[in-house]
Amino acid sequence: MAERAFDILSMGRSSIDLYAKDIGAPFAEIESFAAYVGGCPTNVSVGTRRLGMRSVLLTAVGEDPVGDFVLHFLEREGIVTRFIPRKPGRRTSAVVLGIEPPDRFPLVFYRDNCADIELTIDDVIASPVAESRLLLISGTGLSREPSRGATIFAAERARESGTKVVLDLDFRPDQWHDPRAYGVTVRSILRLTDVVIGTDDEVKAAALQESVSVSVEHSQVSGARVGGDVLKGVDAIINAGVEALALKRGGEGTTVYLKGGERIEADTFEVEVQNVLGAGDAFASGLLYGYLKGWGWHRSARMGNACGAIVVTRHGCANFMPYEEEALAFVEARGGF
Question: Which residues pair with 15 in a beta bridge?
Answer without folding.
Answer: 38
